[in-house]
Amino acid sequence: MGRFMQILGILLALGLLYAVMAGLGLTQGFKRHKATAKMQVIDDFEDLNDDFDWTTGGYVKIEPSTQNKTHGKYCAKATFLLASQFLSDVTPAASDTAGLPQAGQAPSTGSASSPQAAPPEPIPTPSVPWQPEMVLDVNSVTPLKAFEWQDYADLKMDVFNDQAQPVTYHVEVGDSHAYLFDTSGPLTPKKVTNISIPLDALAQDRLDLSNIRSLRFWVDTTDAAQPVVVYLDYVRLEGDASAPKPNPAASPTAKGSP
Questions:
Q1: Run of H or E residues at 6
Q2: What is the C-alpha separation between 99 and 114, in angstroms, rounded?
């Protein structure tokens, strides 16, 4: 009985201490810590049928993988092709065979009345700054799941670089007014890079955080000798926008479009 009374006394003392701290406003830190647990998953690649159909133009191969995941059972293995692989297999245009002799037909004499073969269509090639990219937006088969980002503090994602050398990642976010935010940084070889982008930086570039419409991710393949492979996982919004902001000096370098 005596031990029970001791425990009861300790609990009552703790309750009284908390009440005093709350009265002095000293429990706000606990509330802020709870608020930072706020989170919205954009894509965690757990649904094998619906989470991998980002728009790529066919130049990024995205497939499920259990290697190098950081959350759940799966992540996305993304293989970024090289510029030399851009439309490498071109189907001839119908006009390429116009005027050519068919089987069992004599060649044309080239008279004025004979149809002339149209010149072949040029093979499309990428421009110098072209980079393959994967896009999540309102038109992608896997849709952007969250348009309203204003209540969150950070956009986060985990990326494993499978190369033996660093590569540069790029993340671009666009809103419904066509304003863009672009940030980049290095991916350490054979390690996971935890990318964290403060949403305040997007707001400073005049993006409407209540109406986000696109998220693009790519890695720099310039001068690469073979396709670049990375593993992407747990794309998400985290934190509470009303919580204390991190040091601006730690924010990633960003380039915005007016």
A1: helix 2-23
A2: 8
Closest CA to 180 of 153, 152, 212: 212
pTM, two decimals, is 0.67
Q: CA-based diameter of the chain, in Å?
A: 118
Residue-wise pLDDT for 134-181, tens only, equals 999 989 999 998 999 999 999 999 999 999 999 999 999 999 999 999
Question: How many CB atoms neighbour CB 75 within 10 A?
Answer: 26
Q: Where are the beta strands (DSSP E) in the chain?
A: 39-43, 60-65, 75-80, 134-137, 154-161, 167-175, 180-187, 192-198, 212-219, 228-238, 254-257
Q: Which token pair is 148?
A: 């309203």
Q: What does the domain layout of the chain look like in residue ranges?
A: 30-84+127-251
CATH class entry, domain 30-84+127-251: mainly beta
15 CB burial (10 A radius; 0-12, 13-18, 19+): exposed
